[in-house]
Amino acid sequence: MRGTPEETEAGYRGSISYFGWYEVDAENGVIIHRVEGSIFPNMEGSEQKRFFELKGDRLELRTPTFKMDGEIVHGILLWERIP
Q1: Is residue 78 a contact partner of residue 60, using CB atoms and an 8 Å limit?
Q2: With contact defined as beta carbons under 8 Å apart, do 20 and 34 qualify?
Q3: CB 33 within 8 A of CB 22
Q4: What is the C-alpha separation between 43 and 34, in angstroms, rounded?
Q5: pLDDT tens, 31-81?
Q6: Does pLDDT of 1 surpass 80?
Q7: What's the pTM?
Q8: How far apart are CA 64 and CA 56, in angstroms?
Q9: Residue 50 and residue 57: Cα distance in Å, rounded?
């Protein structure tokens, strides 16, 4: 909580957070996040589709591809359970 204005801005611009409910479609490897609140108000009330793969202690979530700064990209989030 003691970052410089530049550090705080960099941290904010480099992250995303939201909360709400989710629904798992295990057969198709899809999770739908139903966003109730977010640091980005335009996400509130939206549904965010994520593809998932669970292998052992690792969970990978991937966004559909999207355009950012003129490039086609996708996001990946990896979680690993630590024994």
Answers
A1: yes
A2: yes
A3: yes
A4: 9
A5: 999 999 999 899 999 999 999 999 999 999 999 999 989 999 999 999 999
A6: no
A7: 0.76
A8: 23
A9: 18
Tokens of 33: 């996040």
Candidates 44, 7, 49, 12; CA nearest to 28 is 49
Burial of 61 (0-12, 13-18, 19+ CB in 10 A): middle
Largest Cα span, the chain: 46
Assigned token pair, 70:
């003129």
Residue 2 DSSP symbol: -
Which residue in 73, 63, 78 sits closest to 33, CA to CA? 63
Distant-in-sequence, close-in-space partners of 2: CB < 8 Å, separation ≥ 6? none
Please identify which residue in the block is written with the tokens 């589709």: 49
